[in-house]
Amino acid sequence: MRPEEPALPAPRGPLSALLTEGLCAPAQPLPAPSVAVAPDPLADEDLQLALYTCYELHYRGFAGVDERWEWEPSLIAFRAELETVFEAELLRRLGEPADAMVDPADMDVALRAIADADDGPSLSRAVERDATLEQVREFVIHRSAYQLKEADPHSWALPRLHGSPKAAMVEIQADEYGGGRAERIHAQLFADTMTGLGLDARYGAYLDRIPAPTLTTVNLMSFLGLHRRWRGAITGHLALFEMTSSIPNRRYANGLRRLGHDGGTLEFFDEHVLADAVHENVAAVDLAGGLAKQDPGLGGSVLWGARALVLVEAGWARHVLDSWAAGRSSLLPEPERDAPPASAAA
Ligand SMILES: [Fe+2]
Ligand SMILES: [Fe+2]
Fold first, then answer.
1. 77 C-alpha to center of ligand 2: Å?
2. Fewer Cβ atoms within 10 Å of its own Cβ: the N or the C terminal residue of the chain?
3. What is the C-alpha separation between 95 and 86, in angstroms, rounded?
4. Ligand 1: distance of its center to the CA of 290 in Å?
5. 308-337: average pLDDT
6. C-beta pairs of 266-270 under 8 Å, 24+ apart in sequence
7. What are phi and psi for residue 215, nearest 5 degrees?
8. Residue 275 C-alpha to ligand 2 middle, in angstroms?
9. Which own/partner contact pairs does 260-267 have at CB distance under 8 Å and 24+ positions apart?
10. From the CB of residue 186, how many other CB atoms can be counted at a distance below 10 Å?
C-alpha cells in the first residue's frame, strides 16, 4: 500500500458496492452491472460514485487495489454501462451538439453568450458575503474532488489535439502545472488552502463526504477527456472554465479575507484571479476558436461542452446553496464503516 493512494470509498448502492467489492480482489472479470435508469442520473449517489471510482483508476488509483484493474476489460465494460446512462442524460438535457457551423472568429463571442445566459445560483457571491467558516470549509471539500487533480482531466485531450489548439492548451496547462515549479502547481496551491483551513489535504481524503452533484462535475470532465469523440466538448469545457474563473475566484478570496484568512490560504484564489485573466483569451480565441478553425465540424461540440459545464456547475451550486438555506450540511454524513476484525486491528 502506498501512502499517497486514497482509500476506496464506502459504497452508496448496488453499483458502487459491486464495484468496490470487485476492486478489493486481484483484477479478474467483474460481473456485468444492471444499471437501472435513475430518476436523475446527474444526482444519483450510487451511479456517480461508481463512475467516479472507475475513473479514479486512471488517476491515482486506490490503496490496496490491483493496478491491473485500470484496463481490465470487464471493468471498462462496467464503466461503459454507467457512461451510457450519464451521456444519455446529458444529451437529454442539452440536446445533441449543433451541426450548424460556428464561425471560428466568433467562438469567443458564442462562449461568452453561454456564460452570460447562465442564470444558475452564485455560490461565489454567497462565499464572499455571508458564508460561515464551516460553510467555506465545506465548499473547499467539495472542490477538492477536482482541484487536487486540477487540470488533469483536460490534459487527456492533449494527445487528441494538434497544431495551434494543442499549443494553446499546453500554454494554459503549463501554468496549471506550476510552470516548472512544483510548489506552484495549482493542485498544490489548493492543498495549501485546505491545510490553511485546518482540512486534510491528502488526495481523496473526503471522497466519502462528497455528494453526487459534485462528483458529476468531475465525472463530466473525465468522461469528455477520456473519449476522443468528445475532444471538442472537453476543449469547450476548459475554455469556458477559464473564461469564467477570474471573477468567482476574486469573490472566494474576498470571502476568506472576510473570515480572517490570508497568506498561503488565499494564494490559490489570488493566483486564479491573475492567471485566468490571461488564460481567458488564450482559451476562447486560440484554443476553442483555433480548434473550430482547424476542424469546423467540431465547433458545435465545443459549445456543447461549455453548456455541459454550466449545467453541472449549476446543479452543484444549487445543491450546496439549498442545503445551506435549509440549515444543513451540503456534505454527506461520514459513512459507518464495519469495524475491522480483531486480528486486523491488533
Ligand atoms: Fe488553475
Ligand atoms: Fe487557468
1. 33
2. C
3. 13
4. 21
5. 96
6. 266/193, 266/196, 267/189, 267/192, 267/193, 268/147, 268/186, 268/189, 268/190, 268/192, 268/193, 269/193
7. -60, -35
8. 6
9. 261/196, 261/197, 263/196, 264/192, 264/193, 264/196, 265/192, 265/193, 265/195, 265/196, 265/197, 266/193, 266/196, 267/189, 267/192, 267/193
10. 20
Identify the nearest ligand to the CA of 281 by its number. Answer: 2
For the entire predicted model, the pTM comes to 0.95
Q: Which residue has the higher pLDDT, 59 or 2?
A: 59
- What's the pLDDT band for 99 if we cut at 50, 70, 90? confident
Cell 490496496 identifies what position? 64
Which DSSP letter does residue 64 get? T
pLDDT, tens only, 192-210: 999 999 999 999 999 999 9
Of 304, 63, 29, nearest in space to 204 by CA = 63
Separation of CA 272 and ligand 1 centre (Å): 6
DSSP state of 31: P
Task: List, for residues 218-228, the tens digit of each pLDDT value.
Answer: 999 999 999 99
Closest to 104 measured CA to CA, from 165, 166, 170 = 165
Centre of ligand 2 to C-alpha 279, Å, is 6
CA of 170 to the centre of ligand 2 (A): 11
Task: Please state, as a whole number, how many other Cβ atoms lie within 10 Å of the Cβ of residue 70.
Answer: 16
Ligand 1 centroid, distance to 196 Cα (angstroms): 18
**Taking the chain, what is the end-to-end CA distance rounded to the nearest angstrom?**
18
All cell numbers assigned to 19: 464495484
CA–centroid distance, residue 172 to ligand 2 (Å): 6
Residue with cell 472554465: 241
Q: How far is the CA of 2 from the centre of ligand 2 (A)?
A: 30
Ligand 1 centroid to residue 85 C-alpha, Å: 30
- Ligand at minimal distance from the CA of 176 is 1
**Confidence band, pLDDT 50/70/90 cuts, at residue 277:** confident
Instruction: State the distance from the centre of ligand 2 to the C-alpha of 174, rounded, in angstroms.
Output: 10
